[in-house]
Write a structure and sequence with these properties.
Length: about 220
Amino acid sequence: MAVNGKSFLIDTTKCFACRSCQVACKQWNELAAEDPVPTNRGTYENPPDLSHTQWLLIHFNEAERADGTLAWNFVRNSCRHCIDAPCKQAAQNTDSITIDAETGAVLFQEGTRNESFKEILRACPFDVPRQGPDGQMFKCVMCVDRVHNDLLPACATACPSDAIEFGDRQDMLDAADARLEAIRPDFPDAAVLDRHDVRLLILLGDRESMHRLRAAPAAADAE
Ligand code: SF4
């Protein structure tokens, strides 16, 4: 059965980790700077993890390909806006996590402060939800306020290399297939992750193991 609504296509073969998307997300959503300010950890990756004010993060990873060449891969970590969102299924109250009718975006509401963070985080396959000081949970909101006014999400607007496409879901799936076909000679392992299950379609050039796809599981640290 076809799934309507919107989707992102994140083409990691075009991303050069300028992190304009991270900045645009902070700016549009009026998210505070990380506190305390992160220190240098010997990597350009910054800050070290998602937080209640950091909804999008580019992960860096160096890995060696089979032919001996070195790959420096960049991949986005943020909410995937799952089609049948496990976080929503784990919520006790139906109003805590809602689905935007136009886009299919998964939205955390104020009521998440009354949910168990441990259960919501455990349910997420991608270690995405983060909790603010008063218990409310936060993550990417697909910039639905912009999309409802015929604008692209802030991250897609800011990306200078067209590594972030956004549009009707079937169009994004078709664009992903066309891109896979085009890059196959250079990237024989290219693939789109979880294409049937999520609205954030991530296209990888190298094998999945050559990318640092998620932050370290935080469930054990939850309350
Ligand atoms: Fe929910 Fe995690 Fe899926 Fe986002 S990625 S919709 S937080 S389960």
